[in-house]
Structure formats: C-alpha cells, structure tokens
Amino acid sequence: MNQGWTYHNRVDSTTAGLTLLAFYSKRYPHSSRQEWQERIESGQVRLEGKQTDPEVVLANGQTLSYHRPPWKEPDVPLSFDVLHEDAEILVVSKPSGLPVLPGGGFLEHTLLHQVKIRFPSHTPRPIHRLGRGTSGVMLMAKSRQARAHLSQQMRKRHIQKRYRALIGADPVDQPLAEHFDINQAIGKVPYPGWGEVYAANDSGRASHSVCKVLQRRSDSTLLSVLITTGRPHQIRIHLASIGYPLLGDPLYGVGGQPKPVPQAQSRPVPGDCGYFLHAHSLQFIHPQTNQKMQFISPPPPQLSLL
Predict the structure, then answer these.
(1) Residue 56 has pLDDT above 90, yes or no
(2) Domain limits of the chain?
(3) Which of 61, 163, 218, 306 is paired with 88 by a 20 to 30 Å CA distance?
(4) CATH tag for 159-275 (out of 3.30.2350.10, 3.40.50.2300, 3.40.50.1370, 3.30.360.10)
(5) Contact 226, 147 (CB under 8 A)
C-alpha cells in the first residue's frame, strides 16, 4: 500500500457554475458519477478545505481537493540503470512497464519516486517523458539551471532522440522505402470512458518523424526512428497512421486511431504495455560544460539487430 495522495484543482471560468459533482464527473470520467457522489459525501472531496454537498454550485477561483486513500499499486519493474551522473544531470535507462510520473493508478511505482529514493538530497527532474511501455534512455536535471538549459534545448529541437521500433512484416509487392518521413498532425480525439486521447488528427499539432529500415524479417520489420517533435505517443500514432502499428500495441490501430473494442471488453488506455518501442540514443549539449554528449541504452532482444 502506498501513502495515498491529494489531488488539487482550481475552478476557472470554464467550470464555474457547475455543481461539485458535475465538475468531478466531467473532469475525471474514469470514475462513475455514483463513485464521485460517494467520495464527496464521505468527505474525500473538499471545497475550500471543507466538506460540502455534491450539488453545491462552484464559483470562479475556488479550490478543490480530493484525497485518495492509500491503495495497492500494480506490480511493475522498479529498477533502472544509471548511464551517467554528475553535479548537473542524471541519465538513466528506464525499463518497459515503469511509468515516469504519477498517474493512472501509479504513485510510488514510478521512475520519479524511485529516483527520489536513490537520490534523496537532490531529486533529479525529467526533461522529457517516455510512455510506460517504452524502455530506454532518459535525461534528468539536478538543478534549476540545468533544467532551464536543457528545456530550452528541447524547445529548440537541439536534443536528438532516436528510437528502435518493431512493426509488422512488409508486403512483398509494396515494401517500405529504406528511408521515409511521416508528417501526420497529432491532436486529441474523443475516447469513451477516458474523455480524450491523442491520435492522428489533421486539426492537431504539426509532428515529424524520420524513419529508417534497419532490418526486414519474415514476421516483422525493425526501424530506427528519429523524432524532431515530441508529441504524446508520436511514434505509435505516426507508424499506425501509415498502416504499420507497432507490434503488440493495444491501443492504436491502422490509421493512427484507437482500435474499436467490443462492448464486453475493457478499453485499452495509453499507459497499457505490450508494444515494442525503445529509446535507443539521446544526444544533447551538457548544460554546464557545453560539451556534446550522447548516451545509448542497449535495446531488448526483439529490438536488436539479428
């Protein structure tokens, strides 16, 4: 069991006028209206620090809090390898299955929490994220100055991120080109039970991936993918958008949209694992020395050259 967690929200002009129950039911549809009503009535949800009625009408600027009692988190791999550490940065190799940040039922079973345990005096903060099911190299900053410097590099696209990805086998009559770019825009789309998820969306933000075929196999194709933009789930969405979803991806199907799910089955969510994606290399400028640095995380067997 973890220690539980308190989630905070502030009412703004878009949510003022809603009842407390409507606010939580709409903002967090992963729980039913009845579940939110029970939480409010039991005092787990508070308005301005006080217990109140589910039907109270909210006003702009009010503060809300929901205290989630301790819960047992799913078992995940908690170990990680340190690739480099100095006074300013930490570079680690994250295993598949370990979330980077709290969310979706995870609080202490996250990379951030495990890093806090290992480096309690100066907890490094992630400069970028990897999906829960994605393994590989991650960059973290130990100081505010390093974080600001590296974040600026990220915004200016000076940090180079290269991945290994496994897709299905090529059709013999229409094989993939050795090199190809994907420029499908990515944005949010409605997703029942979850609210919204990122997917291929022509009204979304511009996105760019540069792909190279590393190895063609009888049952799969191994790719190297360089992303020049960092949209959520970009590689998964991009490859699915051209008809090549990552092997084992439970969420994204051909077209870069969430797969249709029979009503009797539970819907997959973005944090579900099973796909084959690995952050293989990361290149950046050290925030203190201005030295160009590159780190490589050895890929798992399925994503290694045979």
Answers:
(1) yes
(2) 5-68, 75-156, 159-275
(3) 163
(4) 3.30.2350.10
(5) no
